[in-house]
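Quick one: sequence plus zinc ion SMILES, need structure tokens.
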Amino acid sequence: MGESIPRVFVPSVTEENGGTIALGCFSSEETAWQVLRAFLKKSEQMLLESSSVVIWDVDIVGEEAMTVLSTMECKDCPVCGRRTFWIDVDNFSALCYVSACSAWIEENTVDPEIIDCGWPTIRFLKQNKSIDEAVEALFRLGDRLKSVGEERMDETAAESILEEELDD
Ligand SMILES: [Zn+2]
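Reply:
Sure thing.
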């Protein structure tokens, strides 16, 4: 067998105005993801639109050298409202990168028909029939947080929100 072609992993983000921010060029996929995730955690003050990790095969001319490994889009977080909710468009999952929030949506690991969503702050977890339903559940949670006032978001308030969700 021939030698494997050297390849590099290139994470980048695109700003709303179309500008691209290159984050470097790495020999391992793992490092590329680490660098990208670290950047996204601090992206709160920027207006970002999308991010990607691209594999480039070295010493190959043209577009065939390029493979898009992952693309993510940035939206306003349904729970905290910050523009830090990153959606993986290829295999659907989403996460708010503000660590104080960390709202998420993911396919259920056992049953792919089920879409889980959650908000770790109050151990909120809900199973949904569709992505839309999961997004909606997070929006409802965000609305309730706004009405309660985040500073008063203590255990009691959290429990009442959880109970209301179960009643739905
Ligand atoms: Zn959030």
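The mean pLDDT is 89. The longest strand covers residues 48-57.
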